[in-house]
Write a structure and sequence with these properties.
- The chain has 70 residues and is an alpha+beta fold.
- It has a single domain, classed as Double Stranded RNA Binding Domain (2-Layer Sandwich).
- Strands 1-2-3 form a 3-stranded antiparallel sheet, with helices on one face.
- Strand 2 and strand 3 form a beta hairpin.
- The model has no long low-confidence stretch (mean pLDDT 96).
């Protein structure tokens, strides 16, 4: 399953979240570290849904860049 992940640079490194899995977040000091941490967070989040017998939300977020005059 693929989930959209949004990465943001912070003052101390990077953070990430998935809009399709509320509460699923990760941080890291580099882009590579936050990506690996987010993979772990996604796996743990999905396992939590399964362990609780809850239906896993289906990915439905999309992303795009829009160009506007500045």
């Amino acid at each position: 399953m693929k989930f959209l992940v949004i990465y943001e640079e912070t003052d101390t490194g990077f953070s990430a979240f998935s809009p399709d899995l509320p509460g699923c977040i990760a941080t890291g000091s580099s882009r590579e570290e936050v990506e690996q941490n987010m993979k772990t967070a996604l796996s743990m989040h999905i396992k939590g849904f399964q362990d609780e017998g809850m239906e896993l939300p289906q990915p439905n977020s999309i992303s795009t860049y829009l160009e506007v005059a500045s």
